[in-house]
Amino acid sequence: MSELDENEIRHEVRAWLKAHWDPRLGLLEWRNTLVDSGWGMPHWPTEWHGRGLPVGMTPVVDDELAAVNAVSVAKSGIRLLAAATLLEHGSELHKEKFLRRILTGEDTWCQLFSEPGSGSDLAGATTRADFDGSNWIVNGQKVWTTSAHHAQWGLLLARTDWDVPKHQGLSYFVLDMSQPGVDVQPLKQMNGHASFNQVFITDAKIVPEYQVSATGNGWAVAMTTLAHERRGADGLRNAARARDLPGRIYEEERAELATVMEPYKWYPQRAGRIDLVVARATATGAAAQPDVRQAMAGALIMSRSAEWTARRARAAQQLGRPQGPEGSLGKLAASNVARACSHVHTLISGTDAMLSGPESPLGGVVAEILLSVPATSIAGGTDEVQRNIISERVLGMPKEPRFDTGPFRDVPKNVLS
Ligand SMILES: Cc1cc2nc3c(=O)[nH]c(=O)nc-3n(C[C@H](O)[C@H](O)[C@H](O)COP(=O)(O)OP(=O)(O)OC[C@H]3O[C@@H](n4cnc5c(N)ncnc54)[C@H](O)[C@@H]3O)c2cc1C
Q1: Is the CB of 120 under 6 A from ligand 1?
Q2: Is the CB–ligand 1 distance for residue 29 below 6 Å?
Q3: Which atom number of ligand 1 is nearest to the Cα of residue 383?
Q4: Up-side HSE of residue 378: CA atoms within 13 Å toward CB?
Q5: Least C-beta-crowded within 10 Å: which of 86, 168, 241, 318?
């Protein structure tokens, strides 16, 4: 899109905000107005709360909202993965029922994919859904389920056919998390937070209308969710920051973010906090040591080059080009940057890096970095799995040997089914 078009869009949003933005409105009332206008998600289709603009225009519109401190639609958390998946694969009923409430922030979502015996091997899921003639009946266990403790809806991958190869026997559903057969138990992490849960599902019901994929075609839909996750839902989580401004709408926004963003409080630390490195090395005098300077330079170079690669990927996306290798490299680069930062913070703080509490380095932030960085190499696909994807799909290397191509029932599993 040309600069002139961008200016036109800016002009149009500004005029619309001048006519409609009112900080005295309630959060829900304002968000409904924003959703109706299509400016909340301008790259979404016009029939579904958008304006059909190129995705590159969304930050431009967001800029204009931020310039007048206008509250945006709810863009944080797994709800956006749900929205992206339902926009692509959902029925009219799904879009009608769920999309608006995602954007107004009325509903939160979780992703019920990983299980104790299938994380990397997601297609090996053994949570089952059986059709009883009226409804799907779900039994099984999920784990690592971020935000399940306050989610109304879950994106569920479950096995519906045990007699075909594993990728062909899965189906994709929307699960009502508020029903009695869904038992959510929080898990405490080593960094002190409790972002994710284990979810025990016993005879939970799903009405046929809440089936998203065709029966047995759940894998393709799950791939859409994962592609959006790997493409950087984190960026959207980071964007949702509470504003310290007076007024009803800001109070309501702060209350919402306090709940919805609570599981993501430590996410900046898990990225390694490259932004703290230079100031901290200078303040502590560690920058005078050649080995620290060397490690700092390494981490900064890695971080900048990862950022530029991500920008190239975004530019290509804005020009409508298909996703290149940058998408696969980005996640791995983020792990490398996080680890390099964690190493530098350890060099700077020495053994004090292990201390937490107000008297410790940066009030415990350094310790939280060390304990949170490993999550970057696991969440949304581990480093090893990313390397497999890059070697097979980007570099065209031979595929891993497979021993699980027959009917799933006969495939050796590490859980009882
Ligand atoms: C912060 C965080 C949030 C998460 N949120 C969610 C969520 O909301 N919903 C959800 O469903 N899941 C979530 N997850 C789970 C995440 O997707 C899984 O942890 C991840 O896919 C890895 O699976 P696993 O933990 O079972 O590890 P495993 O698959 O058991 O892997 C163990 C080790 O074996 C290696 N390995 C496995 N297979 C291969 C292979 N083929 N080749 C080489 N090495 C291999 C792995 O790299 C790893 O080092 C979250 C995880 C984290 C850390």
Answers
A1: yes
A2: no
A3: 47
A4: 8
A5: 241
Ligand 1 centroid to Cα of residue 50, in Å, is: 34
Give the Cα separation of 108 and 102 in Å (integer).
7
Beta bridge partners of 112: 156
Per-residue pLDDT of the chain (417 residues; tens, 9 = 90+): 555 589 999 999 999 999 999 999 999 999 999 999 999 999 999 999 999 998 888 989 999 999 999 999 998 889 999 999 999 999 999 999 999 999 999 999 999 999 999 999 999 999 999 999 999 999 999 999 999 999 999 999 999 999 999 999 999 999 999 999 999 999 999 999 999 999 999 999 999 999 999 999 999 999 999 888 877 644 444 545 778 899 899 999 999 988 888 899 999 999 999 999 999 999 999 999 999 999 999 999 999 999 998 888 878 877 777 777 776 788 899 999 999 999 999 999 999 999 998 899 999 999 999 999 999 999 988 999 999 989 998 899 999 888 899 999 999 887 655
CA of 380 to the centre of ligand 1 (A): 7
Work out which ligand 1 atom sits closest to the CA atom of 78: 8
Ligand 1 pocket: which of 382, 397, 413, 415 to mutate (most atoms <8 Å of CB)? 382
